[in-house]
Amino acid sequence: MVTLKDAKRIIEAAEKKAKEIGQPMNIAVADGGGNIVAHVRMDKAWIGSIDISQKKAFTSRAFDIATKDLATHSQSGGQFFGIHASNGGKIMIFAGGIPLKKNGEVVGAIGVSGGSGEQDHAVAEAGAAAF
Question: Where would you find the membrane-spanning parts of this chain (predicted)?
């Protein structure tokens, strides 16, 4: 289970990393059902990335995979090609979503958007590490 207290700690660690790299981000944390527990839009982070960060968290939890890894398999000819059109368009195949695990079981996810794919993933990793 991902509590609000957990989500705040995860977001704080992710914000710290985003500040270190100088890129404002949207950071979303979802619970085991893919529902948003908490979201933060850092000052000057793109408004359009609010939705993307939340969908990255949903995607990571829905498929229990990092979105950067799902992206690799969803390219033309890949085994998951077209997956982004599933689930009412809620699937994001950009880097920045990471499942959150407790005792080896996925219990939630973090989704980050606002920079390059590498930046989004690095910030998400920092948040996930705080869990």
Answer: none
